Amino acid sequence: MTSTNTHDFVRILTQVAAAYRGQKNQRPTTEEVVNALLAAETIAKKQRLNYNFESLVGQWRLCFATGTKKARESGGIVLGKGWYVPKLATIYISFKATPEEDLNSGEIGNQVQLGSISLQLTGPAKYLGKKNILAFDFTQMFLSLFGRTIYQQNIRSGKGESEDFYNQPIAKLPFFAFFLVNADLIAARGRGGGLALWIREDIS
Predict the structure, then answer these.
(1) Which of 15, 54, 116, 199 has its CA 20 to 30 Å from the CA of residue 185?
(2) Are 96 and 105 in contact (CB under 8 A)?
(3) C-alpha distance from residue 77 to each of 40, 80, 153, 158, 163 (Å)
(4) Interatomic CA distance for residues 140 and 154, integer angstroms
(5) E strand spans, the chain
(6) Residue 168: its pLDDT value, please?
(7) From CA 147, how far away is CA 167, in angstroms rounded?
(8) Among candidates 45, 31, 39, which has minimal Cα distance to 8?
(9) Quick one: pLDDT at residue 3?
(10) Backbone dihedral angles phi then psi of residue 17, each to the nearest 5 degrees
(11) Up-side HSE of residue 165: CA atoms within 13 Å toward CB?
(12) R_g of the chain computed on alpha carbons
């Protein structure tokens, strides 16, 4: 891959972030975004890029994702079409560090907000820096209305599951394999094979 192509995928993904924030940039096509994500993933593998957990800490808004589908001939899983997340529904992912315990452990939050209603899942997370893999599990669910929690429930067995989480092998847990992380956006491939792009929410 040439340096020009490297510049192209950075430019395209940066353009996606700007357009999604409403900065009057032309929005790249879904095909362009998928190709840019694949290029970023290839570069990360070739250059053996490593990111630390601290660079993920914060709140990020999902703006683009792809699905997966079964290949007709091989029966394996292949990448599906990409799509921009409708702005009507706000989907966040957040990471908090717990340095007093382990620099590579923390908490994950996944929140879907539609108008005044918000559903959030939280739980423990652990990060394998050499592989840029973040494994996680959701153990708590919160339902909020106008910013106030109106319902809360443990998922599975709650605290017990959280404590056992750190002894679980990565292969048995949901995870994201990050291949692009900077101050403005993050991109990863999920365990199921799909790609996702988030933009930092607290950037004006």
Answers:
(1) 116
(2) no
(3) 20, 9, 34, 32, 33
(4) 5
(5) 58-70, 77-84, 90-98, 102-114, 117-128, 133-136, 140-145, 148-154, 175-181, 185-190, 195-200
(6) 85
(7) 34
(8) 39
(9) 39
(10) -60, -45
(11) 26
(12) 18
Residue 45 has pLDDT above 80, yes or no: yes
Alpha-carbon distance 61 to 201, whole Å?
6
- Write 6-13 long-range contacts (CB < 8 A, 24+): 6/39, 6/43, 8/36, 8/39, 9/35, 9/36, 9/37, 9/39, 9/40, 9/43, 10/40, 12/36, 13/37, 13/40, 13/180, 13/185, 13/187, 13/197
Beta bridge partners of 109: 94, 122
SS3 content of the chain, % helix, strand, coil (to 5): 25, 45, 30
Instruction: Tell me the pLDDT tens digit for each residue of 122-137.
Output: 999 999 988 999 999 9
Query: Which domains does the chain carry?
Result: 51-177+184-200 (2.40.128)
Which residue type, as a one-letter code, is found at position 36?
A
Query: Mapping DSSP to helix (H, G, I), strand (E, B) and coil, where does residue 130 land?
Result: coil
Region 179-185 average pLDDT: 95
To 5 degrees, how large is the angle CA 23–CA 57–CA 64?
45
